[in-house]
Amino acid sequence: MSYLVLARKWRPQTFTDVVGQQAVVRTLRNALTRDRVAHALLFSGVRGVGKTTLARLMAKALNCRQGEADVPCNQCESCLEIMAGNAMDLHEIDGASNRGIQEIRELKENIRFFPSKGRYKIVIIDEVHMLTPEAFNALLKTLEEPPAHVYFMFATTELHKIPITILSRCQRYELKRVSYAELVTFFAKISEAEKVAVSQRALEMIAREAEGSVRDGLSLLDQIFSFGGDEISDGDVAEVLGLVDRRIYEDLARALLAADLAACLDIFTCSQAAGMDLKRFASDLLGFFRALLIVKIKPQPEELLDLSDQELAAIQDIAAGASQETLYQYFSLLLKGSEEMQYSSRPRLALEMAFVRATQAGQVVPTSTLLARLDGLLAGVVLPQSAARPAFPSISTAEPAPSAPRTIPLAAVSPVATLPEEKMNNLNKAPISLPEQDGQSPPALTAAAPADREVTRHWEEFLRHVRARKRWMAPVLQLCTMVSEKGDELILEFATPFDCKLLQEPDNLKLLQQFAQKFFQREFRVVIRENSAQATGESENNETESLLVERRTLGNDPLVQMTTEIFGGQIGNIRPGLKV
Length: 580
Ligand SMILES: [Zn+2]
What we know:
580 residues; alpha/beta; Rossmann fold; Zinc Finger, Delta Prime, domain 3; three-stranded mixed β-sheet; 12 strands; 51% helix; binds zinc ion
């Protein structure tokens, strides 16, 4: 007897044999026992998950002459004929090659007659989405009033291509991909029955490769059985499937996260020497980092990952050594590398470059952690009391104030050594200027309405309140150029987006709002505004000007300010980089 491929040999002959799809199977069996099977059923799902198998099982159950309604006997004439593929009353049509109106007309002609042997005529149309619109149209009339002796079973991998008029006349069953665990169990059962010893890891590799399709998995198993004889090792599977043993990704991930470039390149070279397809390798490595991220983010990662317990444990172990931000960074860099690979004439170099970039990127510390560290640092540091900046700068947009306005652009914190003199002059024309003040009396606010006084009068006090609670926030608030109230809004205006970037982060804004509400005893909603129009002032819109503005903005960045204040440093040079 010729060799029967596993997919045919192991095709389920009863509902209990079906792998996965429990919900659909239960519904179908209920319909059979209650004699309520719809006259048109539509099975959808990816290839190899059991669509036509279920349709044939339904055909068998409907026409079986013995047994219970939902348990085809597999012994009566009808069951045997269906299994042998020569049942007169079962019409199996491949929608891909019989898609025209003529075929449907012939079919309609055929089903007008009563079944020759069984109780029903059953029509199975596979890949039904391939039918032409005219064919669908011709079918529609039959589906509207199906003869009592006819059942239609449709199967499709592309549900969205089926006209809504057809869909609405079918009972629909969506088949899911079979789970990884179910596939592993099923393949183990087959290997045992076929008397081939397959290692657990090899079974897992096959199940993962099958991606939820029983048929795909079975044909892989076929290949491996014919390759390896009675005993199949992990290496056999890796060789046949062109896969890399997953342990290579574990080793590579560890080396990457340890920034050990030499080890990375060694591991990579080994994988290539083993004949691994490069694209496949990159994609699997990305999949591995995705798994690392998911393990970090999700409490029950196994729902999203096709992994054995052993593999999951290894991934959790690796992920424990890196922050979520680091893993995300690596994932992005590798994704970029594998995208570059697609267009590169030297894809291997593109991937190696990604390794170099990733190992150089190093560990990423989340901003929140940095800020917390900064708070800790600042707690032990006495900040120069507004030495560099006045407590409350305001913007004078009109003529220079008679009291000789003092400019506080970068000059306050930096001699911009590399700027030529001309540019320095421009810099000094920078529009942020403020009235001279003695540091004793609270500075007057421009255009502050009387109602605002409450807030403005106590602003200094509020800053102290904030400084005592969130140390880094006070110097940032000092960059505020105007404070005003409007209804329940406390409006803080800033000269540039950079000045208020940090405050605009949701967590920080929330915190600031809490401080304001508590201090002023009002239900304030804090609104941050960027007043960049004023900041750029009478910009001539030429490049030099914008470069200057950019430099100044960078110099005014709260983080830069804080850093110079903490370390008592100065800004020596500002080199605007490439815009990201
Ligand atoms: Zn039977």
